[in-house]
Amino acid sequence: MDQSWRELRLVAAAHAVSTFGSFLNLVALGLFVLHLTGSPMRTGVFLAVRLAAGFVTGPVAGRLAGRYRRPHLMIGADLCSAGMLVLLVAAPVGARPVVLYGLAVVLGAGQTLWGVAMRSHLPTLVGPEQRTRANGLVVTVRSVAMLLGFASAGVLVGWLGYHVAFLLDAATYLTSALLLLPVARRTAAGTPPAAGAGPAGPGGGHPGRLGLLRVVAPVVLAMIAVRAADAFGSASHNVGLPVYATLVRPDAPATFAATFTTAWAAGSLVAGRWAARRAGRGDRTGRGGTDGGPAPAGRGGTDGGPAPARQGGTELPFAVATCLMSVCFVLAFTGLPLWLLAPVTLAAGAADGYAEITYTTRLQAVDDDLRARLFGFASAAQNAGFGLGMIICAGLLERFTPLTVVGAAHGLALAAALTFLLVHVRLRAAARRQPAEVTL
Question: How far apart are CA 436 and CA 337, in angstroms?
Fold first, then answer.
């Protein structure tokens, strides 16, 4: 147990360093592309290529993480990202536009592969009963890294210039890879992920994409759909925030946007710490955390199909947190004074962080040989929702106010979460009544 948690802390530290690098280059590269090309459209194309690469990589990442050792894939993604950033700095000026699009592909694909491999690997690392605690720790350190990345990106670019900022960014990926080396060495001595025996496809092998959707519990697919709608809503406030900040604080839009994002990240940090501590207290008292502990014998497997009542530990908190997040984000665009905006945005971040923890914990409950592919599919769905949201909401902001656009997009997420919540509550109630009816 102690060894597992030491390795988890290494993975969490690597995730924090890698996330810092991702948010640093998200800001710095956007500014650099605009500076290099002078074209907002080409800047948008760069971001679209990065998102598209993440979307396409999702299913591929799931297959790779199910077949190869996941820490090795994470290290490979880090090294590729670092190499492309160094290449961008070393490339001649005339070649940099081409290198930029290659970098967009590598960063988008690498980030997706890293996330799928990490989330698939955590239950193997700490055990099924520790999933919530581990996910809480990951969300906590990622939130800290996001705060630092957002806060330092503009300062680093302004003080050090683009080239030094990119080299510093490359160093974060190299540091992440170094932190993962002890985990990779221990994993190399164990059984590769593909060795597990799970549900077979028509030819005796692993199920195809449609087979995967048939094997996992319907509630998991519904949660992925809600999360994709949530990503669509998140795109609206990401696109709408610069416009809204310019409208409400034309004298200092950057300060307003920084306050908004900082409060959101702080809320996510609070959610991660609370979930980890709550799960830890449950472990010490023997009651389990949000996972609810291992299922009793005869109550179905980890995919949750035959035991809907038992698997209610994460679904309901996920739906409630998603609803709260959407409502708070819409409220944040209603012109609230700063003293009220900060706690509302913090609540949105806390709800968003907790929704992610419960969502990830539930997906990690499937069998190990299916888990990686399921995360790959889920990653593709989220990237699709976010990408469509960026395109559609950016177009709508040309004609409508930020409140209207954010309200409509998060209204879609709210409707999806409420539908999931109501249907799931009714199914759980029906499952509880069924044994009594049989007894009569």
Answer: 53
For tokens 């509550």, the residue is 425
DSSP state of 306: S
d(CA 70, CA 258): 35
Tokens at residue 421, please? 């919540």
pTM of the model: 0.80
| pLDDT, tens digit (0-9, with 9 covering 90-100), for 128-186 | 777 888 888 888 888 888 888 777 776 777 787 888 889 999 999 999 999 999 988 87
Architecture of the domain defined by 1-185: Up-down Bundle (1.20)
CA distances from 239 to 9, 95, 221, 236, 388 (A): 34, 30, 27, 5, 12
* Distances from the Cα of 150 to the Cα of 202, 340, 351, 439, angstroms: 48, 22, 20, 59
Closest by Cα among 22, 155, 112 to 378:
112
Query: Residue ranges of the domains in the chain?
Result: 1-185, 208-440
- The tens digit of pLDDT for each residue in 17-61 reads 988 888 788 778 877 887 777 766 677 788 888 889 998 998 898
Nearest to 123 by CA among 212, 297, 296, 4: 4
Class in CATH terms, 208-440: mainly alpha
**Residue 267, amino acid:** G
CB 201 within 8 A of CB 215: no
Mean pLDDT of 109-114: 93
If residue 350 lies in a helix (H) or strand (E), which one and from where to where? Answer: helix 338-363
Amino acid at 265: A
For 238-313, list the strands marked E by DSSP. none
Single out the residue of 81, 106, 272, 74 nearest to residue 179, CA to CA.
Answer: 74
